[in-house]
Amino acid sequence: MDSKNTFRYAWQPYVVAVALIAVAAGLRLWPLQILGVRLTWLTFYPAVMAAALYGGFSAGLLGIFLSCLTMLYLLPVFVTQPFIQNPVDWLGMAVFAITCTMISFVAEAMRRARAREKQTREQLGAANKELEAANKELESANKELAAANKELEAFSYSVSHDLRAPLRAIDGFSRILMEDYATQLDPEALRYFNLVRDNSRQMGNLVDDLLSFSRLSRQALRKQSVKTTALVRQSLDELRAETNGRRVEFTVGDPSPFGSAQDGSGQALPECQADPNLLKQVWINLLSNALKYTRKREVARIEIGWKKENDEQVFFVKDNGVGFDMKYVHKLFGIFQRLHRSEDYEGTGVGLAIVQRIVHRHGGRVWAESQVDDGATFYFSLPLVETAAPAPVIEQADELAERARELI
After folding, report:
1. 338 or 144: which carries more pLDDT confidence?
2. What is the average pLDDT value for the chain, to the nearest integer?
3. Helical ranges in 342-383 per DSSP H
4. Structural domain of residue 106, as residue ranges?
5. C-alpha of 360 from chain center
């Protein structure tokens, strides 16, 4: 709105107030022969009310002032008997002024309420438009996500079927050559064939882990009450083969034999709300990791415990293994990331990435603490209060594809 229109709009209520009071004065003179000087303010009440309703409190005050001025100085020019003659008339004028002031105040409040209502409607309309735009963007994002899911499923299928077959062929033909032509091959050639077989099996393991990692984004989360201690015992039973010929001391939910347990961590492992199959995978991966990196210890000690922090249950697996340098901790849970040489410790670098993916889907956190040659402690948390699990998304899909291409 330009300055000229703004000026006209600002003065318009006062012009209307002046016109209404002029009309009221004219109407008050017209029935004078009938009413005389009685009901002095009869026509001015509705005029002031109309001015206040149209222009607000200030326009109402102007109407009151002009009404009083008209009665005192203007109308007496046209009549022989003044309207204001005695204290009672003055009291009537005071009542008129007070009453109309109150009416003007109420009218101003009504006018502001209407303005706020109009502004609210405008804001609501703008918000609705923004919401519609956001919904359209969300629908578009959902379509893109669905397309990404389909692409990842197609990639997983390709990895599962197109890569496994040649890997099996490489391993099988290498084994046949070693068995049938071993006498014709020198030791160096046999060593090469063994390397081919070892690497083909390693590639097969990478393919399997890659598929397991990609499925976690699409697998439905079925939360229920889980008896954690029983689940940990089941996981240890499945890993029993990795303890054969070794001295391994496990501590499950009891006071730690090589470190203090605080905040309830020395108590029996509590029940939690989680998907039992996925949570079991977390425990198997963490316990297998602890068994692997304590292999060179004469006596391996592994503690499984918990503690309560705010609104979370924090579980941990602590070992006395080789540990790692904390300056590389940011790489620990990345897919295909390894902090130790594969010649020293086997693995694909996917296990901890799977742990992080599962815990994040449960609304929890995962982290680790360690010192070189002084063991490591892996933590993960689960919320005590039920929270909505994040919608499955394709995390690190590009990285998976790129890594797979490098491996192929």
Report:
1. 144
2. 76
3. 351-361
4. 3-130
5. 13
* Position 328 in a domain: yes
DSSP 135-190: HHHHHHHHHHHHHHHHHHHHHHHIIIIIIHHHHHHHHHHHHHHHHHSGGGS-HHHH
Quote the CA–CA distance of 217 and 39 in Å, as a whole number.
Answer: 84
Eight-class DSSP state of 326 = G
Cα–Cα distance, 59 to 286 (Å, whole number): 78
Task: Name the band, by pLDDT with cuts 50, 70 and 90, for residue 319.
Answer: very high
Residue 15 belongs to a domain: yes
> Contacts by 160-168 with C-beta closer than 8 Å and gap 24+?
160/207, 160/211, 163/203, 163/207, 163/408, 164/204, 164/207, 167/200, 167/203, 167/204, 167/207, 168/204
Last residue of a domain, one of 130, 158, 193: 130
Residues 166/204, Cβ–Cβ less than 8 Å: no
Overall average pLDDT of the 190-211 stretch = 74
Alpha-carbon distances of 391 from 49, 122, 141, 314, 336, rounded to whole Å: 60, 34, 13, 23, 24
How far, in Å, CA of 321 to CA of 374, rounded? 6
What was the pLDDT predicted at 397? 45
What are the structure tokens assigned to 63, written together?
């109407």
Task: Label residue 378 by pLDDT band (50, 70, 90).
Answer: very high
The pLDDT tens digits of the residues spanning 273-301 come to 998 888 988 998 899 889 988 888 889 99
Number of domains, the chain: 2
Return the DSSP state at 227.
-
Distance between CA atoms of residues 32 and 39, nearest Å: 10
- The CATH number of whichever domain residue 315 belongs to comes to 3.30.565.10
Residue 32: the pLDDT is 53
Q: How far apart are CA 100 and CA 43, in angstroms?
A: 13
Label residue 303 by pLDDT band (50, 70, 90). very high
E strands, 254-297, in order:
272-274
Q: What is the DSSP letter of 325?
A: -
State the amino acid at position 163 in one-letter form.
L
Same-domain check for residues 125 and 227: no
pTM: 0.52
> What pLDDT is stored for residue 352 in this prediction?
84
Examine residue 326 and state whether it is found in any structural domain, yes or no: yes
Indicate whether 125 and 240 sit together in one domain. no
